Amino acid sequence: MWLFCNMGEKRKIDLLVLSDIHLGTRGCRAEELINYLRTISPNKIILNGDIIDIWQFKKKYFPKSHLKIIRMLLDFLSKGSKIYYLPGNHDEVLRKFNGYGMKNFKISNKVVLKLNGKKAWFFHGDVFDITMKYSKWVAKLGGIGYDFLIRLNFIVNSFRKWRGKEKISFSKYIKYKVKEAVKYVNQFEQISLGIARENNYDFVVCGHIHHPVIRDQIIKGKKITYLNSGDWIENLTSLEYNNDKWNLFEYDSNNFKHLKKERSSTIDKSTNELFESMLKNFKS
């Protein structure tokens, strides 16, 4: 499904939704995301929170691959793509720039777009998280623990791969097997759908809980589609909207074997100029 007709051809996407990339952490799967971004040409992009993990940001750990993702997104901008950045809890410092915009780039806490006559509501979702609202230090502690679990998982899976065994995911097992976690996910979805119904939205698109899904539900006689873009730590997923249809993209390394490693950056000069211009605007 995700193979390409011509080796150099990029898939055109009307709207791309990415969230929970967590750049700046060891759990981030930057190389896989780079492969994905190299093969698509999106018209609009929603960066739906937790793109840069500012909670755990350290100057000594921000690999070139993480920086490249930022540069690739800027390259999309320079080529005419429109990007909406909706900060999440891990990059909430950017919320003070709510309403900031230049050229095709805008920072906002939420976005409502018309998609073929239907209203789509985009927001990160941490507003529904009680630990975020009342015990932020607990949430931050949980974030550190999660990153440690991902790093431990990487070591274990490297050993399992050497032994010829399948990969396992500690955090997925914990999240999907613990009853309270399942209950939380269900509550998160129901609250989102309820508010969407009150506002007559047709689609509600979130991130935050790292649980990729597309699901229709009838709420008070109206069909509403709940979508979550997942993450680029474990699930490696995004949402794509094309020809009035939503699809959940799931990364499969077998579909990207044809890609050759880039020896040098293909980011053009206009991207660097745009980056410098954005930095200047933020500092002022």
What is the compact description of this entry?
This protein is of the alpha/beta class and 284 residues long. 35% of the residues lie in helices and 23% in strands. The longest helix has 27 residues, at 136-162.
Main sheet makeup: 7 strands, mixed
In helices, the fraction of residues equals 25-40%
Which band does the percent of strand residues land in? 15-25%
From the N-terminal CA to the C-terminal CA, the straight-line distance is: 46 Å
Strand order of the largest sheet: 4-5-3-2-1-11-12
Provide a count of the helices.
7
| Order of helix and strand elements from N to C terminus | EHEHEEEEEHHHHEEEEEH
CATH topology: Purple Acid Phosphatase, chain A, domain 2
Question: Could you walk me through the main structural features you see in this protein, from its secondary elements to its overall organization?
Answer:
With 284 residues, the protein is an alpha/beta fold. The protein has a single domain, classed as Metallo-dependent phosphatases (Purple Acid Phosphatase, chain A, domain 2). Helix content is 35%, strand content 23%. It has seven helices and twelve strands. The protein has a seven-stranded mixed sheet, with helices on one face. Strands 6-7-8-10-9 form a five-stranded mixed sheet, covered by helices on one side. Strand 11 and strand 12 form a beta hairpin. Helix 2 crosses helix 7. It is globular. The relative contact order is 0.17. The N terminus is likely disordered.
